[in-house]
Amino acid sequence: MSAPNPLAAGALGRCPNCGEGHLFEGFLKVAPSCEACAYDFSKADSGDGPAVFVILIAGFVVAFAAVFTEFTIHPPIWVHMILWLPATLIISLGLMRPLKGLMLAAQFMNKASEHRRGE
């Protein structure tokens, strides 16, 4: 059996090493290790990277859609609130887990680990 694509596995929330085990325990909490191959996730830390990408992607999509809607339809402000606040929340929550998985898989692919002084 060939090794899985780590980026695809990470985006799906699977172990980037084997592609079988779960990468997350909860919504965003990284599991201590893979239950399928026992790969250690304790050194995995994506930091603020996924949040930055979520802000950039969701912000662009929602801002573009809101401006486009304003210039074409000219709705009242309450329509913008009803449309774009939930859209921002849904897009942000929908992107956070796959992007965090991608960042962790990229660390795995590049054999990156967190460097600590004094260790």
Automatic annotation (TrEMBL):
InterPro entries: DUF983. The chain crosses the membrane at residues 51-71, 77-96. Keywords: Membrane, Transmembrane, Transmembrane helix. It comes from the Bacteria. This is DUF983 domain-containing protein.
